[in-house]
Amino acid sequence: MSNKETSSLDHYISQIDLLLNRALQKIDQLHWITLSSVQIKNGESLPDARTVVLRKILKNRELVFYTDRRSPKVEQFKQNKNAVALLYDRTAQLQLRIHGVIEIDTQSALYEDARGRIPTQAKVNYNTLHAPGSPAHSIEPDRNKEVLHFALLRFLPHTFDLLHLTPEGGKRIEVKSTNEGMLGEARWLVP
Ligand SMILES: Cc1cc2nc3c(=O)[nH]c(=O)nc-3n(C[C@H](O)[C@H](O)[C@H](O)COP(=O)(O)O)c2cc1C
């Protein structure tokens, strides 16, 4: 591989953390991430996806999302921990597709800290009487304000797949990550 090729590989590797750090900012379009899962319906494995807000990135590049612990995605991740997080920067024409596994966290210190910091106005996201996705009698669901059905979704990446669209064609790299968040060697992929 030529020096030029290596330096552009390094350039694209550095884009991974740049995109992830931007996704933490509330003013950035990347703050809203598509998180996919696998659901089992009538014995069939089917894809599912939804938008979630990126709340935190831990040292090992673990991404932390908040959710209602009764939501269908939680059951899906309990049955199949595999997930994909998808980010797209429309201006820079960069797509970051991250394959990893999800752990549901309802007991760690991180969980307790996050739970304690939920702003009052955001508690509506975790205090409906019935589980998200269940039928509601009216536009406003019943609530029990004494309870918070809160959980963390902790997404541990194992593969980063970055695609850059350019007028000359796509440039694409793949980088593997260890559980500790160490990035391995990157390689070019056909876009
Ligand atoms: C802009 C936006 C941000 C959202 N953020 C979250 C979030 O951070 N956590 C979450 O559980 N649901 C969030 N939702 C709702 C989910 O997309 C989804 O509708 C809900 O969690 C139920 O998903 P499920 O049926 O796959 O469990 C958000 C929706 C939108 C439109």
Summarize the structure.
With 191 residues, this protein is of the alpha+beta class.
Describe the overall structure.
By secondary structure, this protein is an alpha+beta fold. It has one domain: Pnp Oxidase, Chain A (Roll). It is built from three helices and nine strands; from the N terminus they run αββββαββαβββ. Strands 1, 2, 3, 4, 5, 6, 7, 8 and 9 form a nine-stranded antiparallel sheet that branches. Strand 8 and strand 9 form a beta hairpin. It is elongated, with a radius of gyration of 19 Å. The two termini are 18 Å apart. The structure holds flavin mononucleotide. The site of flavin mononucleotide has 14 residues, from strand 2, strand 4 and helix 2.
Number of strands: 9
Rg is 19 Å
What sort of overall outline do the alpha carbons produce when their principal axes are compared? elongated
Q: According to CATH, what is the topology?
A: Pnp Oxidase, Chain A
**Helicity level:** 10-25%
Task: State the distance separating the first and last CA atoms.
Answer: 18 Å
CATH class: Mainly Beta
Bound molecules: flavin mononucleotide
Strand content: 35-45%
Q: State mean pLDDT (0 to 100 scale).
A: 96
The SS-based structural class is: alpha+beta
Question: How would a crystallographer describe the biggest sheet?
Answer: 9 strands, antiparallel
CATH superfamily: Electron Transport, Fmn-binding Protein, Chain A
CATH level-two architecture: Roll
Low-confidence spans: pLDDT under 50, at least 5 residues? Answer: none
How do the SSEs run, as a string of H and E? HEEEEHEEHEEE
Query: How many domains make up the coordinates?
Result: 1
Number of H- or I-type helical stretches: 3
